[in-house]
Amino acid sequence: MHPTGLRRSQSPNKRRRVMNEEKGDGGGSQQASSPSASASASASAAHAVVVPAVPAADVATDSGDALPIAEKRDEILKAVEENQVVILMGETGSGKTTQVPIYLHHAGYTSKGVIAITQPRRVAAITVAHRVAQELSSQVGDLVGYSVRFEDVTSAATKIRFATDGFLLRDCVRDGDFSRYSVLILDEAHERTLATDMLFGLVKRLLVAGKRPQLRVIVMSATLDPSKYGGFFRSAGVVPLFGGARGRGAGGVGCVRIVRIPGRQHPVEIFHTPAAEEDYVEAASITVMQLHVEQPPGDILVFLPGQDDIEALQQLLEDKRVKLDRLRRHPSPSDPLPPSWQSSSLDMLICPIYAALPVDQQVEAFRPTPPHTRKVVLATNIAETSITLPGIRYVVDSGKVKLTTFNPRTGVEMLLRQDVSKAAAMQRSGRAGREAPGQAYRLFTEADSQGLADQTPPEITRADLAQIVLQMRAYGISNEESFPFLDAPKEGALDKAVKMLQDLGALDNRGLTDLGHRLSGLPVVPMHGRLLLDSMEFGCLEHMLSIVALLSTENVWHHTLTSERKADKERRKRVSTNFRRLAHPDGDHLTLLKAYHRWNEVSDKVGFCKEHGINHHALVRATKIREQLQGLLVRLLGDVDMAAHTQAAVGKDEQWVSIKQCLAKAFFLNAAKLMPPTRKYRTEYGRQEVHVHPTSVLVERQSLPQWVVYNDFFQTGVGKKLYIKTVTAVEGEWLVQFAPAKFTAAYVKD
Ligand code: CDP
Ligand code: MG
Q: Taking every annotated instance into account, which residue ranges of this chain make up the domain Helicase C-terminal (predicted)?
């Protein structure tokens, strides 16, 4: 460790790899053993066109003409004209997402209907909508709009609609033929999210049925294996319908066309750590500082699995930056800086970017880097392919990603931190070489990189399918097994989902129940939907609206995993003292509600949040979500008299009881029973032994309640312990009363 605490990083492994998009598939890489090999690789490949390193502000005015996609414009339009399905493959940043809708608009497709472009991530949908609106000199919500869960910024004038795949999927329950759209663009297909996969199946069914011969479908992807999508749409029964007879391109024109956009990837040198890193956040901070003081100008992009790690790294880097500035200004003989570190004088600007970050802060990462400054962007895998940040020359990759993982045996879905796939690691490294040759520093060993899976398995093989099955039923698909899946779900996963919906009362032998219909109309998971619908009977509708809205935002409390790191000890102490004043001893749902009410009452909301370790933006967002949910309920159930369904104000004992009862009724599938004499619980569904997460108010209690219900179930990376989080005490007898099929009086008492 260097005395400044700015330890020099382990010297990067000198074995190099050169990324070169032209050299192979799957983001192709080529082993090269010397720097000269890397130079010759870059010289020999088709890199003649060098994308100039222009700041975003300039890019904004050149309307995409300089992008690699520009030379394919006519080919793309012709392909779309002649084929019902076009598959567009092109490196990240080549201009697919922003340019294709513009081409189609100018070619007249918006006069026949709306162009929809799906994005797996809301951040991407929003930022790209802004970008395209700007290129078309329009305001977001006008010609160009976006629709994400809880936020629909479109109007009657909107002709180019960016939407999350989840939004479009829910929307098509109402409009199964996509009748308002002239073109559907399924973007980021390689991500293979559950919703995009479902849209694939629905679109294929629609095309097979021949209901929309004029509809055009474009599949866009960054990876290089179009055959899978091509084969899917070309497969049995599809071809004749929009090939010869009915298709406009009769005379041998195929129904599916593949268009490739040439890559302009510059070579990227890849370094691995010589030994495995135990703490990748710490390792990332060291690597970033070292790059910052020793390397020529160019922005740094760091990939981390989630918001908690991003916040932790931001804190570490801020501390180190302050220390470095101080030592540059006041050199200390006892703590000398290496000469090379003194000579560099760039300032450091740290920009986090992740889904839950408010949009106005997300755009920071897209702004041109100010002079004499190096931007350090801390991102989740959102920056892997769905957004392109200008100016990046260095990539630091933790090698980790958070993925939902569902175990059909236990019926439990968890968000797990996992190793990235080889394809994802190549994509991440490739971000360094978009504008000029770059460098990628991987915080894992060369040997570990060889052991990575080739591809991330599609989400449909990993996720809880309950919500999807509910939507399929609402859409009128009663036999999921016959659905044209691009990849089939895991054995038993569909049955498990059906069973869970039956337990919840959403399905019975005849199909979707009334409750099921209502649940399918709410953009929340079925159990949260039940909380809302059940709350009327318990007289706590207003409060449940708040609770569900709060559960639908991310990380209300700042003291998440971040606070477990040593660096945050002081902050944790202060925050937890204040937090205790807000805590309700019976549980986290109640505590959330209490905090939200106090926040609504106080005038200095930002100050209140700081003092209590609350994420102010999360509460602002919760307020918006709450309004949306309320509107949806009204639409679903007719005029709902909120007050009539809310009998007691916050703070009254009856009100806490009614909320806990409602939780017991809606969340009985997430009940867990204490296992004395330990402080562990056993979940009812899946029978797993779990710990209450240290952030829960319950852990403060001397004696724990015999029964609880929980919102989240997960495993931590370290120690692989299983935890339940956002937990509230309930009475065993309520479980018997509300879910008699599952709980007997004798069982809950014993
Ligand atoms: O979809 P694809 O990855 O092929 O590229 P794109 O998202 O259309 O991005 C094309 C270009 O627009 C890139 O140079 C981006 O840096 C730029 N862009 C931007 O500056 N700001 C945005 N919000 C979106 C794109
Ligand atoms: Mg894109």
A: 287-476
ipTM of the complex, rounded to two decimals = 0.97
CB 181 within 8 A of CB 113: yes
Name the phi and psi angles at 169, rounded to 5.
-65, -45
**Residue 252 clears pLDDT 80, i.e. is over it:** no
The ligand 1 atom at the shortest distance from the C-alpha of residue 98 is 8
Q: Which helix (H) or strand (E) holds 299?
A: strand 299-303
Q: Which atom of ligand 1 is nearest to the CA of 59?
A: 20
- What the block records as the tokens of 40 is 């010759």
Whole-model pTM: value is 0.83
Q: Which ligand is nearest to the CA of 128?
A: 1
Instruction: Name residues whose C-beta falls within 8 Å of residue 458's C-beta, 6 or more positions apart in sequence.
Output: 192, 197, 486, 487
For the chain, the structural domain boundaries read 12-16+265-459, 64-261, 464-519, 522-660, 667-749
CA of 168 to the centre of ligand 1 (A): 22
CA 50 to chain centre: 32
Residues, the chain: 750
Between residues 50 and 91, which one has the greater pLDDT? 91
Enter the tokens of residue 461: 């093989």
Residue 98 Cα to ligand 1 midpoint, Å, equals 6
The answer to whether residues 101 and 107 touch, using CB atoms and an 8 Å cutoff, is: no
Which of 509-536 are b and which e, b meaning 16 or more Cβ less than 10 Å from the residue's Cβ?
A: eeebbebbebbbbbbbbbbbbbbbbbbb
Give the ligand at the shortest distance from the Cα of 187: 2
Distance, CA of 102 to CA of 109 (rounded, Å): 10
Which CATH number applies to 12-16+265-459: 3.40.47.10, 3.40.50.300, 3.40.50.12780, 3.40.50.880? Answer: 3.40.50.300
Nearest CA to ligand 1 atom 18: 388
The answer, yes or no, to whether any atom of ligand 1 lies below 6 A from the CB of 390, is: yes
Q: Which two tokens stand for residue 457?
A: 């398995």
Instruction: Average the pLDDT over each of 307-321, 670-684, 728-742 and give the range with the smallest value.
Output: 307-321
Atom of ligand 1 nearest to the CA of 220: 1
The predicted model gives 414-440 an average pLDDT of: 91
List all residues 6 or more positions away from 341 whose beta carbon is below 8 Å from its beta carbon: 6, 293, 294, 324
> Would you state the structure tokens that stand for residue 140, as one six-digit string?
């977001």
- The answer to whether 686 and 656 are in contact (CB under 8 A) is no
Q: Is the CB of 391 under 6 A from ligand 1?
A: no
Nearest ligand, measured from the Cα of 366:
1
Residue with tokens 């390397």: 295
Under 8 Å between Cβ of 172 and 103: no
> Could you identify the atom of ligand 1 that is nearest to the CA of residue 91?
4
Q: What is the mean pLDDT of residues 624-650?
A: 84
Domains 12-16+265-459 and 64-261 share a fold: yes
The CATH architecture of the domain made up of 667-749 is Beta Barrel (2.40)
SS3 125: helix
Ligand nearest to the CA of 69: 1
The closest alpha carbon to 198, from 505, 494, 504, 528, belongs to 494
- Say if strands 392-397 and 373-379 run parallel, antiparallel, or are unpaired: unpaired
Cross-strand pairs, 520 = none
Cα angle 625, 630, 633 (rounded to 5 degrees) comes to 125
CA of 95 to the centre of ligand 2 (A): 7
d(CA 195, CA 208): 20
Q: Is the CB of 366 under 6 A from ligand 1?
A: yes
Tens digit of each residue's pLDDT (9 = 90 or more) over 173-194: 888 899 999 999 999 999 999 9
Name 255's Cβ contacts closer than 8 Å, sequence gap at least 6: 83, 84, 85, 233, 234, 238, 239, 241, 242, 243, 247
Tokens representing residue 712 in the block: 């989240």
CA 490 / ligand 1 centre spacing (Å): 35
